[in-house]
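Retry 2 of 3 after timeout on previous attempt. Resubmitting structure tokens to design endpoint.
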């Protein structure tokens, strides 16, 4: 009997998949959502594909347009900034974890407009600062700083934004 937890795991007869089957599964996997090369390699290991076949399958996926590291980095950066409100430092770390090259990371981070970035930081800081209205001034400031640092924003920008907020709301 198959347990519910085992249902999500792929079933193998001990021999793994053929190269054609693995390629088809990876096409579907990469076609559903943009993936990094690291994600595709990890999926190949999960599917039980021999390590010697990885490069061949990955090169076919790149040729067919299913894998594109630059496209992945641009979409990852845009999504994490717009939807998750992440700062550049957190996005940079996320892309490093995905083993994207430094050149592509820098190119992707440059796509974030500086005005939009400043505006988003300002909005997040004001929202958090307002949320902590009952707290003492220093506690309120520290919690806001920690929140923005966790989101991946640069300390010097956070300090500037909080100084502006403090000028507008001295109490």
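Retry 2 succeeded. Sequence:
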């Amino acid at each position: 009997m198959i347990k519910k937890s085992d249902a999500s795991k792929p079933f193998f007869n001990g021999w793994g998949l053929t190269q054609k089957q693995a390629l088809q599964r990876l096409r579907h996997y990469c076609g559903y959502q943009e993936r990094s090369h690291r994600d595709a390699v990890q999926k190949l290991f999960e599917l039980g594909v021999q390590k010697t076949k990885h490069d061949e399958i990955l090169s076919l996926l790149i040729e067919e347009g299913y894998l594109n590291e630059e496209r992945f980095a641009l979409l990852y950066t845009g999504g994490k900034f717009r939807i998750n409100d992440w700062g550049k430092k957190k996005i940079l770390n996320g892309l490093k974890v995905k083993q994207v090259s430094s050149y592509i990371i820098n190119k992707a981070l440059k796509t974030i407009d500086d005005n939009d970035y400043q505006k988003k930081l300002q909005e997040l800081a004001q929202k958090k600062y307002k949320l902590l209205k009952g707290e003492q001034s220093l506690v309120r400031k520290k919690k806001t700083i920690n929140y923005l640092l966790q989101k991946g924003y640069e300390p010097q920008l956070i300090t500037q934004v909080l100084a502006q907020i403090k000028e507008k709301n001295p109490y």
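Attempt log closed. The CA atoms of residues 13 and 24 lie 18 Å apart.
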